[in-house]
TrEMBL record:
Taxonomic classification: Bacteria, Pseudomonadati, Pseudomonadota, Alphaproteobacteria, Hyphomicrobiales
InterPro entries, sorted: AAA_dom, DNA_Partitioning_ATPase, P-loop_NTPase
Protein name as it appears in the record: Chromosome partitioning protein ParA
Pfam hit, one: AAA_31
Domain of life: Bacteria
SUPFAM superfamilies, per database record: P-loop containing nucleoside triphosphate hydrolases (SSF52540)
Organism: Terrihabitans soli
Length: 269
């Protein structure tokens, strides 16, 4: 196998707003990708650790975390933990991550810590991952910047609500800044509309506006608001394990296949 095949596709799941569905998308898109044959690593880069908890990794078992990777005390493969989903591992986070910014402030390569760690993952001779999904915190801090510097593309969850577009234009400016400085190759994988409520006229209007603004960058798949999706994390399970037939699970499976199709097109181009 050559290096190109071994290198995973790295997607940063980012939006500076909280509560838009980043973590939910990391967990459930990761699960759906694994279910259709990919080998997936979710990197939890949010000190809240919701992606780790939502995948059933309890806090006590997190001896090593993304904190240790960011400060250079562990390799990412060492901290990766298996989950109930075959082919899906999680690099968990803990609150320690809150201190990373201070600890690495003096390093001129501080924005590339995650990139270096992920490069090691592709080169260490271990079983290769095909997708790495980085769950970002809800702000443009050094952790998010690290993930945008490491990723090939950004995937933006956008909640179908009134202020969606406002946050999006700020995000686009940040992506442009990252391209101009840290990572010229960063592309936008796509915008995922989340928590769509068919009974609410506003949701439909937001979808139309975002599609007009972002064109075919917006995934066709729209994630509906679905109570099963919000219940699943308290059981430490992705919704696909909690209730495979619910509308949320089906939407995330559809999103995964849309992403794979886009990747194939990209590779063929
Ligand atoms: P973020 O990571 O962007 O802060 P989360 O993924 O944690 O956002 O989602 C915020 C809240 O909304 C969580 O309580 C989550 O369970 C809930 N949620 C996310 N997506 C859906 C959905 N499609 N249907 C219902 N609830 C959802
Ligand atoms: Mg989150």
């Amino acid at each position: 196998m050559n290096d190109i095949v071994k290198a995973p596709r790295i997607l940063a799941i980012a939006n500076q707003k909280g509560g838009v569905g980043k973590t939910t998308t990391a967990i459930n898109l990761g699960t759906a990708l694994a279910a259709i044959g990919e080998k997936v690593l979710i990197v939890d880069l949010d000190p809240q650790g919701n992606a780790s908890t939502g995948m059933g990794i309890d806090r006590k078992s997190r001896k090593l975390s993304t904190y240790h990777v960011m400060v250079g005390m562990a390799q990412i493969r060492e901290i990766a933990m298996p989950t109930a989903v075959p082919q899906l591992d999680v690099a968990p986070s803990t609150m320690d991550l809150l201190g990373v910014e201070m600890e690495i402030a003096g390093d001129k390569n501080r924005a590339y810590r995650l990139r270096a760690a992920l490069k090691g993952l592709a080169e260490d001779g271990g079983e290769p991952y095909t997708y790495v999904l980085v769950d970002c915190p809800p702000s443009f801090n050094l952790l998010t910047i690290n993930s945008l510097a490491a990723a090939q593309a950004i995937l933006v969850p956008l909640q179908c609500e009134f202020f969606a577009l406002e946050g999006l234009s700020q995000l686009l400016r940040t992506i442009e800044q990252v391209r101009n400085t840290l990572n010229p190759d960063l592309t936008i994988q796509g915008v995922v509309l989340t928590m769509f409520d068919g009974r609410n006229n506003l949701s439909g209007q937001v979808v139309a506006d975002v599609r007009e603004y972002m064109g075919d960058k917006v995934f066709e798949t729209i994630i509906p608001r679905n109570v099963r999706v919000s219940e699943a994390p308290s059981h430490g399970k992705p919704v696909l394990l909690y209730d495979l037939n619910c509308s949320g699970s089906q939407a995330y499976l559809k999103l995964a296949s849309e992403i794979i199709q886009r990747e194939r097109k990209l590779r063929a181009a």
